[in-house]
Write a structure and sequence with these properties.
22 strands, Rossmann fold, 639 residues
Length: 639
């Protein structure tokens, strides 16, 4: 339902006509009350004579105060105060004119009574539709959602008012809950504050509540998780005011609520990045993004496009997702030149030709094989893509004189237990070593799991919940660090473009227990964990850790922090790094997995393979020296 409050001259005229009639009725009623029902004839004539002056004075002030442009369903206390001032002003104007005219003057008591009566009549007419909506608009139809609002403060009050103005939302508020005991038993907007947040399970069941609205600004994630835990046996759904909405004013409305999401459960405050700090480093630049069809690569493209990049080249081997991503990006940023290039980072010649064609200022390398169990079965493919694809991209950036090269890395590179983590660790070593010999500034950026990215646990859990379960979790005690995609990309841009070192890590707060995440996602879907949707523990898969880390002990000893960005000083790569990489390349191309894994163990001594892949002997009989140098033309040191 939409209530239009403008372009209705007929309605305005009717409202002014009502105001004139109400003023007339009020004047005669005031005289009647003043003289206790028997108005002397001489005073009747005085009332008749004063009426035109009073009506004109009243309407003139109401018109000047725009009281004829009243919004019957959106008016509040401020409008009521303005109406009172307008009626008082009309009376003042009447007195100034009336007492300046010749003839018998009305008793002041009649004037005062008329003021009160007119104000009451005008307010009653203007607020009647809203009062009717409050008391009769919330029906008890089966398709209406019985709702409790969490938070009996300003946000809750504004939210309730908006829900009443928009009955098409079909929400019936039964009351508020709040942790402030002083509010218990009071009312807000005519609705009772029925208890504390801890009373939610009982109140939801007793009042047949199907929707819980969280209307506390910047509610801590810990409190959100506790509410979900409390209500896990109910079938209520949850909505929340987004954490990004920080202004507390009349703009708060039901439209701003969104379904409770995994981002609202993160055990830390979201990291905000100042885009104006990065804009000068991106504006007008040519940017190449490998893995541009993926979640991280696509978000990098969106953010640098918003920062005014001159040209963006998305490189990916997945042509379908690449096409769709470029198409969306062109629609969102028509003023930015967006290019799509189908290419495999394992082919150095193709990458070098692209680099010479576009001459990028910035290169973001997000292309990688990241699925841990799959890479356990195909370590040679992980090495070709994650290690040598990274080296090819970095050498391309150096060859064309790019200003910066950024490697997207992962927390799985710390004391890796998987092929995927080990290959990313080796890629970090190679990029950092190349960066010391190149004019191109090279940085590896390491972060944890990204909520909502392709292949991450959250979309998998949601699919399992939609199918009716079970939700599969590896281990009851398994934990992971999580961040949002915009946060991850903000970290990439700020840390890599801000010259904060060779290896940057986000301070990500406390890790999240995966079993709790699954439990909360089921509750957020309006279902009961382990009753309607079972949670099944399937055991850790090959290469998976129980707990992830963000830095090694050596990296933790020396670091500097800026806006929750850690700049880690890791041990230097080994002197024979490129000889060993030559061995690794030959073994990957041969497909001989056992020696390949041993070679990775030599490069990354902290790599602890899955039990079935334990190696004890270093690789033997591998090419070294000049042969490896021919495979990798390392840029010479420059002055």
């Amino acid at each position: 339902m939409r209530f239009v409050t403008h372009r209705l001259p007929g309605r305005f005229s009717l409202l002014l006509l009502f105001d004139a009639l109400a003023t007339t009725v009020a004047l005669y009623a005031a005289a009647y009350l003043r003289f206790e029902g028997r108005v002397p004839p001489n005073w009747v004539e005085a009332v008749h004579a004063a009426l035109p002056v009073l009506v004109v004075s009243r309407l003139a002030v109401l018109w000047a105060s725009r009281m004829h442009r009243w919004s019957f369903f959106l008016s509040g206390l401020e409008e009521g105060v303005r109406l009172g001032i307008a009626t008082f002003g009309g009376t003042v104007l009447f007195l100034a004119v009336h007492f300046g005219l010749a003839g018998q003057r009305l008793p002041l008591s009649v004037v005062v009574l008329e003021l009160f009566l007119t104000t009451a009549l005008l307010a009653a007419a203007r607020y009647a539709p809203r009062v009717a909506l409050v008391f009769f608009g919330e029906r008890a139809d089966s398709d209406w959602h019985r709702t409790i609002i969490v938070g009996a403060g300003s946000a809750g009050d504004l939210l309730l008012r908006d829900l009443r103005r928009s009955p098409e939302k079909k929400i019936k508020v039964v009351g508020f809950v709040d942790d402030d005991p002083h509010k218990w038993g009071t009312t807000l907007g005519g609705k009772p504050v029925v208890g504390s947040i801890d009373d939610l399970p009982r109140l939801v069941q007793a009042n047949r509540v199907s929707l819980v609205l969280l209307a506390i600004m910047n509610m801590p994630a810990q409190r959100v998780r506790s509410i979900l835990h409390l209500c896990s046996s109910s079938k209520a759904r949850f909505k929340i005011i987004p954490a990004s909405f920080t202004r507390m004013d009349e703009r708060i409305s039901a439209a701003m609520l969104h379904d409770l999401s995994p981002e609202d459960l993160l055990p830390r405050v979201a990291v905000d990045f100042d885009q104006e700090e990065i804009r000068p480093l991106v504006q007008g630049k040519r940017v190449v993004i490998t893995g541009g069809a993926g979640s991280i690569g696509g978000e990098i493209a969106r953010q640098v496009a918003g920062l005014g990049a001159g040209e963006i080249v998305l490189v990916d081997v997945n042509e379908n997702d690449l096409y769709l991503g470029v198409r969306r990006l062109r629609e969102e940023h028509p003023g930015v030149a967006i290019r799509a290039e189908v290419a495999d980072v394992r082919e150095p010649g193709r990458l070098l030709r692209l680099g010479k064609r576009y001459r990028p200022h910035l290169v973001f390398h997000a292309a990688a094989h990241k699925h841990v169990p799959l890479m356990e079965d195909a370590p040679e493919e992980a090495v070709k893509n994650n290690v040598f694809g990274t080296i090819h991209a970095a050498l391309m950036a150096d060859a064309v004189g790019a200003e910066r090269f950024v490697l997207i890395s992962t927390d799985k590179a710390v004391r890796p237990s998987s092929v995927m983590g080990a290959t990313k660790r080796i890629a970090e070593l190679a990029v950092r070593d190349l960066g010391r010999k190149s004019r191109t500034r090279m940085t590896a950026v390491r972060f944890g799991n990204v909520l909502g990215s392709a292949g991450s646990v959250v979309p998998l859990f949601k699919q399992q919940i939609e199918r009716g379960g079970p939700v599969t979790v590896t281990h009851p005690d398994c934990t992971r660090y999580f961040m949002t995609i915009p946060e991850a990309v903000g970290l990439v841009l700020v840390s890599a473009l801000g010259d904060y070192g060779e290896l940057c890590v986000l301070e990500m707060g406390e890790p999240v227990r995966i079993a709790d995440l699954a439990h909360h996602l089921i509750t957020m879907a309006g279902l009961i964990p382990n009753v309607e949707i079972p949670i099944v523990f399937v055991g850790l898969r090959a290469g998976e850790k129980l707990h992830e880390e963000l830095m090694t002990e050596e990296e933790e000893r020396t670091r500097r922090v800026r806006n929750r960005i850690l700049s880690a000083d890791s041990p230097r790569p080994p002197a024979d790094l490129w000889e060993r990489l030559g061995d690794l390349k030959r073994l990957a191309e041969s497909g001989d997995q056992e020696p390949l894994l041993r070679a990775m163990r030599v490069l990354v001594p902290s790599y602890q393979p899955a039990p079935a892949r334990e190696m004890s002997q270093p690789p033997e009989g591998v090419a070294r020296g000049a042969e490896a140098a021919q495979v990798f033309p390392v840029p010479p040191a420059r002055a």
